[in-house]
TrEMBL record:
GO terms for cellular component: plasma membrane. It comes from Waterburya agarophytonicola KI4. Signal peptide: none annotated. One of its GO terms (biological process) is division septum site selection. This is DUF3598 family protein. Transmembrane segments: none annotated.
Length: 278
């Protein structure tokens, strides 16, 4: 039986890229070139990771981590996609999640997109870090910056949910319709597991602001076809999600979602692959 460790090994390689730190509004603050090396050792029973930061006009800096097992706060999918992060949100503590997707299945597996979404001790979104990476010999170009137009349409999806308590995964179909309501807003309808969720977002530059939700949230439209979906501020008593999306092809999008319940407990992680049908 294939294990979480085997899924983790999909990420082995030398990933050249950058860590782009962004404000909560999606504005670039800093961009630091990086080299992330994940090397399998002892017949891949161990993994040696080196994150080398290569800031311009400064000395490089290495962060080294060795793995022989995986933390409970991380879940991997068969294609190497993953999410890790806080297992519990609580008042007056920092909180966040990291996401990773590889373009295998919809590319040659030579590009990887990661994202970190971080909240400060007052539960407000503090910063987003967009991490765009490629293997050394990759000739696959970066995807265009995500736009509202590229999201419009009807998307049919297949999803797999893995659970924090390690119960058996579940799979289901999803349907997402995004349409222009007027010049300054879009309307979104999401259907899955006999649930229908409709919402309206105000368009503000590269931000989609869902201000009328019980827990106001936003989607940032970012370079390389990426998107960041999360609350503007977390509040106890509300379910919420942290999400990264990636438009890997003009008509194919993947989303990886980390879900928390109304008590702030991490519940599950879902990988959705959607194809535009209209």
């Amino acid at each position: 039986m294939t294990s979480q460790w085997d899924y983790f090994l999909q990420n082995l390689g030398e990933w050249h890229g950058s860590f782009t730190r962004m404000s909560p509004e999606g504005e670039e603050i800093t961009d630091t070139p990086t080299l992330v090396t994940l090397e399998g050792l002892n017949d891949n029973k161990n993994v040696h990771q080196v994150v080398r930061y290569l800031p311009p006009d400064e000395a490089s800096r290495d962060v080294v981590v060795d793995y022989d097992s995986l933390n409970r706060s991380i879940l991997f999918f068969p294609n190497g996609a993953f999410s890790q992060g806080s297992m519990q949100w609580g008042s007056y503590s920092t909180f966040g999640g990291e996401f990773g997707l590889i373009d295998n299945g919809f590319g040659d597996g030579s590009r990887r997109l990661r994202m970190v979404e971080l909240f400060d001790s007052s539960a407000k979104l503090d910063k987003v870090v967009l991490i765009r990476e490629k293997l050394l010999d990759s000739n696959v170009p970066e995807r265009p910056t995500l736009t509202v137009d590229s999201l419009l349409g009807e998307w049919q999806g297949e999803a797999t949910t893995m659970y924090a308590d390690l119960r058996n995964p579940t799979t289901f179909s999803s349907y997402l319709q995004v349409k222009q309501k007027d010049r300054d807003s879009i309307e979104q309808t999401l259907s899955f597991n006999n649930k229908n969720i409709s919402s309206i977002a105000r368009i503000e530059g590269s931000r989609l602001l869902f201000e009328n939700s019980t827990l106001p949230s936003q989607i940032l439209l970012l370079p390389d076809g990426a998107s960041c979906n999360c609350p503007l501020k977390i509040e106890l008593g509300h379910n919420f999600v942290l999400e990264m999306g990636w438009l890997v092809q003009p008509h194919v999008r993947q989303r990886i979602i980390r879900s928390y319940n109304e008590k702030g407990n991490w519940v599950s992680c879902t990988l959705v692959t959607e194809k535009k049908v209209v």
